[in-house]
Structures are given as structure tokens and as C-alpha cells.
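Human: I would love a firmer grasp of how sequence relates to backbone shape in proteins. Take your time, and here it is.
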Amino acid sequence: MKKSTRAGIMSAVVWGSGQLANGQWAKAIIFFVGQIMLLFCFPSVCDGIYGLATLGETKMVINGSKVTMGDNSIILMIFGILWLFVAVAFLLLYIFNIRDAVKNGRLRDAGKKPLRVKEWWSKITDRSFPYFVLLPTIILVFVFVVLPILFGFLIAFTNYSAPDHLPPKNLIDWVGFQNFADMFRLPMWNDTFGGVLLWTVIWAVVSTFTCFFGGLLMACLVNSRRVRFKRFWRSIYILPWAMPGMVSLLIFRNMFNGQFGPINTFLRQANIIEQNIPWLSDALMAKIVIFIVNFWLGFPYFMAMMTGVMTSIPSELLEAARIDGATAKDEFRKITLPLVLYSTAPLLIMSFAGNFNNFNVIYFLTNGNPINPSYKFAGSTDILITWIYKLTKDNRQFQMASVMSILVFVVIASISTFNFLRTRAFKEEDMMG
């Protein structure tokens, strides 16, 4: 039997024994300690994975004033995910243990000697030092990013909702793709999802392009050769973006109040209107107000960004265009606009994704209102992210909120990836690579 085969079989049975046969005692100790830790953690790993699979079997029992605690499905799911990752880590270590033994056994079959302890340690410290430094960050990312995302994803496949499936009083169960089927099959969910999704797409597209091209227009005006005191105008128009957005939204909410708002009060006193305009209580008017307020808050960012791009355009290029007889319109259409779009197209796509999930503008301005009687837990101006918030905070329909989160991710990721891959900036970077 070859030494590589023998070493692999030995390490498959007792971790590190193949390395010990290859004369690498330091590696042998490390892998053997790993197997001891596995044996120590094995009962907990089995219990955690079993709890993740069952989500609990013992319910809470309330008998008068006596409460007998049962299994908490949410706790079991969280710890089950953690122990599942621990099991995967041990499995990868087991595979690496066998591969390392076989690899160094082949060196012995070829008449070569495996690395000695000092040589192996020097190689590890040189190549793996960045990984050791990044390891704490990787752990934190897993605990605070990956684990919550995976937990939220798994909730979509359970019946975690009020009033009958709320831990710790009740257990939750796995239901597979039932929630996804209900979202598209049941009218109470299907109608709401279709209406809110359509409005969300309209909102994201219109708000993105109005702010983008509004900022472009203001940047062109401020940078015009006929405008004096450019720094003053830039400072004035950047103020809406510099102020906290929540404060501005709450101010606008009071200004557009249909009964006592200063806008309606001024219009009545000026004899422009006789009755109050329902700015936020009518669905169409509320949506128009949302677009206006969002434009006020969003265009300064694009104006500042595009001003920087315009100031970086070589003056010699513009002078050459004027010498060749280019008009101001040609100069903008043939030089300024292509360069601005080239530099800002990726940010335009990111802005679209941000507006798709722009919770603040909708929630703090209208709270998703006015009420739409044909919607389930959603108002006329709710977008998907505010609907998800209402499903969780106000109505405790966690399973449907998780389904919505997955669908939102799929939509945004698909649209953003498709458009980003079509941008000139990405194509030219790919060609350079």
C-alpha cells in the first residue's frame, strides 16, 4: 500500500495520525485536538441540528398560576444555525486533514521529505497571516450579518405569525413553500403585493430620475458662465441635503397637513382655494407630495456630485469644441452629458436600489397612508419595505414579511446587476482587467 493511501486512511480514522506517520508531529497535534473538540461538541451539535429540524416538541403549559416552560422555536432556530455552521467547520477540517495527509504521503512516495516544523510554520505565517488578522472581522460579520440574514430567510419557510404561532407560548413549524404559494395564490395577499409592487417600481424609477436629472439641471445652471457667485449658489442648494432627512420630512408633514398646515392656510388667506386640499389624505395627492418632497431632499446630492464631474472636464476640450463651431447645446449633448453619465451611471443604479428601499421618505411623511381598504396591512403609499415593517411591528406576520424581503432582494439584485453590467464603466473596467 502506498504511503499516501495509508496516511489518508489513518487520518480518516484518527485525525492527525496520517500526519504523524509522515513525520509532521505539529500538524498531528493540531488535527488531533480538533477531533477531541469534535467529540466534546458532538452532543451539542446533534441537539442543535435536531432542534433546527423540529423547532421544538414541548409546548408551554399554563395551569392557573403555574407556568411550565416548553421549547422556544426561535431560540432553537438560532442555536441550530450556529451549531450547523460549527458542524460544517468540523467537516471542512476533517476533509483538510485527510487531504493534507495524502498530499504529504505522496511526497514520501516520490522520495521527498515533507516540510519540517520550522519550515511549515514559516510557510503558514507568511501565507496565512492576512487570514489570521481578518479572522475576528469574519467572525463578527458572520454573527451580525450572515446569521440574521439566514435567520430571516428561514422564517419564510415557517408559520411564525400571530396569533397562534408566537413563541414562547406556541411552537412554530416548517411549512415549506406554502407562504410563497399563499403570496401569489390568495387574493388578500396577491392583490396587495401586486399593487404595492407596482407603486414601488413607479416610485423608485420616478424618484431616481427626477433627482438625477434635476441635479444635473441645477449643476449646469450653477456652473453656467453667466452665473456669478457660484460658491454662494452651491452652498444654498446643498442645504436640503445637509439637514437631517427625518427632521425635514416631519416639517413637510406638518406643512402639508390638510386641516392645519401652513400651505392650506396661506392658500385660503390668499383666496386661491376655498376648501382645504387633501395633500396627504388623498392617494393621488399624497403620491405627488412624496415625489415633490423627495426631489427637494435628493437633487442636492446629484448636483454636488455632477458639479465635481463637470469641473474635472478639461477646459481645453471645451475650447476646442467652441473653436470647431459647437454651440452650447452641442457642447452639453456631445461632451458634458456623456462624461457625466459615464462617471455617474453606477451611482444612478445604486440610487435606484436605495429608493426601492427608501423607508424614511414614505414612513415619516405619510406613514403609508391614506388607508386602502383593498390592501392587506398596507396603505395607498406604502412601498414594499414599509409594508414589511408594518407586517412585523404592527401585525406580527413575520413569515409573510420574510417572504417579502426575499422577493425584494431578488427584484433589486436582478435589476441592479443587469443594469450595472450594461454600463460603460463596468465594460471598460472588464476590458482593462
